[in-house]
Design a protein that fits this description.
116 residues; five-stranded parallel beta sheet; globular
């Protein structure tokens, strides 16, 4: 699968990339970069951090949803209280940090089966 991961924290990025090592993970370090990469390429899944520089995950998700309603977007954040705002922006799943290996892998495997 081709996965776009919008994450400004290098440790979180490396953790998720190691969990999803059998997939092609492209990183964006801020919301604007995520939008640019999304519009340039075809991704099967977007993993979106909530708190990012330049453009946060909520606004980035809303911008993606204006043109693409079908690509799954999973928000990964430690800000559990923002869950409803995240769903309102157009995400499909909400993952609370700290990231649990099985949790993210199970969700990605589910998407991978749907893509095939």
């Amino acid at each position: 699968m081709k996965i776009l991961y919008a994450e400004d924290n290098n440790i979180d990025y490396l953790l998720v990339k190691s969990i999803l090592k059998e997939h092609q993970v492209t990183r964006a370090t801020n919301g604007k970069e995520a939008l640019d990469l999304f519009y340039q390429g075809r991704f099967d899944l977007v993993l979106m951090n909530l708190s990012m520089p330049v453009l946060d995950g909520l606004k980035t998700t809303e911008s993606i949803r204006e043109l693409d309603k079908s690509t799954p977007i999973y928000m990964i954040t430690s800000q559990y209280l923002k869950q409803q705002e995240a769903y309102n922006s157009g995400i499909d799943e909400f993952i609370v940090k700290p990231i649990i290996n099985g949790q993210i892998k199970t969700l990605v495997d589910k998407i991978n089966q749907e893509v095939k």
